[in-house]
């Protein structure tokens, strides 16, 4: 895996072994998403949920984000993220932390040292180890909304299997959707208050 653009452009970072229950973002999706995000990255505070290798947060840091906070519930993934931040000399701007994203997330601002985030990327797994479909998107969005993690004017992106049905929690609205084969990326923002 490698960084596409920015200060670390072209630098390679470590992926995860194939037996990890991680579905890394493809280079095609990452390039397309970051082309859309380009004007929003400078100085952004980024939250990478279900971080896996840290590919999204690392790309954001390379492109000028102020900070990135990575959360995953697999400690092996967190070790890979830590190694990747060292390899890319991004440890001062990034922090990786263990957490179950389907539970209460109100602890994140304290651990991250920020009140809220300008960009949140969520890439929950599509399938379990036995290849059964998972439906983590709706509960993940609910936890993010409950913890009030998205800054006013911020964007939250949800990468999901195209057939997974998603219910948006109060306070978030969908304003864009991109499809890449079997994967959809939904762009969300705070809903206007009535």
Write the layout of secondary structure elements.
Blueprint: H1 27-37, E1 45-49, H2 55-62, E2 67-72, H3 75-87, E3 94-98, H4 108-112, E4 117-122, H5 137-146, E5 150-161, E6 172-180, E7 183-190
Parallel strand pairs: 1-2, 1-4, 2-3, 4-5
Antiparallel strand pairs: 5-7, 6-7
Give the helix/strand class. alpha/beta
The CATH topology comes to Rossmann fold
Mean pLDDT over all positions? 90
Total number of β-strand segments? Answer: 7
Strand order of the largest sheet: 3-2-1-4-5-7-6
Q: How many H/I helical runs?
A: 5
The CATH architecture name reads 3-Layer(aba) Sandwich
Regions with little confidence, pLDDT below 50 for 5+ residues: none
Note the main sheet: 7 strands, mixed
What string, H for helix and E for strand, traces the elements in order? Answer: HEHEHEHEHEEE
Q: Kindly state the percentage of residues in helix.
A: 10-25%
Q: What is the approximate shape? A: globular
Compute the CA-based radius of gyration: 15 Å
Describe this structure as you would to a colleague:
With 194 residues, the protein is α/β, with parallel strands linked by helices. The protein has one domain: 3-Layer(aba) Sandwich (Rossmann fold), CATH 3.40.50.150. It has five helices and seven strands, in the order H-E-H-E-H-E-H-E-H-E-E-E. The protein has helices at residues 27-37, 55-62, 75-87, 108-112, 137-146; strands at 45-49, 67-72, 94-98, 117-122, 150-161, 172-180, 183-190. The chain has a seven-stranded mixed β-sheet with strand order 3-2-1-4-5-7-6, sandwiched between helices. The longest helix has 13 residues, at 75-87. The radius of gyration is 15 Å and the shape is globular. 38% of the residues are buried.
